[in-house]
Amino acid sequence: MALLKILHYPDERLHKVAKPVGQITSATRKLIRDMAETMYAAPGVGLAATQVDVHEQIFVSDISEDHNELRVFINPKLISSTGVEECEEGCLSVPGVYEKVQRCERITVQAMNEKGETFTLEADGFLAVCIQHEMDHLKGKVFVEYLSQLKLSRIKAKLKKRQREAM
Ligand code: NI
After folding, report:
1. Which CATH number fits domain 12-166: 1.50.10.10, 3.40.47.10, 3.90.45.10, 3.40.50.11270?
2. Model pTM greater than 0.85?
């Protein structure tokens, strides 16, 4: 296994739209294992392939405290969504930034796991937020883009300053 490099906002590659996975190969399964390892090491609760510069519709998530509930989503589709909720979100691609974003409260999503089996999952609460956040990554959208232009430009300035200081 290997740790993957996570792209940081405002890297343009975070705006690429991911393509559906055709066949699940051993390379796909290796990517998924590496993504899970990278997410746990960060540590984070979700990671989309887009964030590691692979533009295929794959994300992993684990919101458990013990890191023993890994979920793999390949070619996820939102089947239904209801309600509205607001939750503070963060993102491994936007380190140190936590902001409230409006999401659907309850969703039903259909996807494939790493074995190629299709499953349907009903989710609410934090898991629903996490799934919507990761599905956005696959569409090239980062959560801070839901914020006002003013907030977004402040965040960009903060991140650029931090990147300069890190060099
Ligand atoms: Ni994210």
Report:
1. 3.90.45.10
2. yes
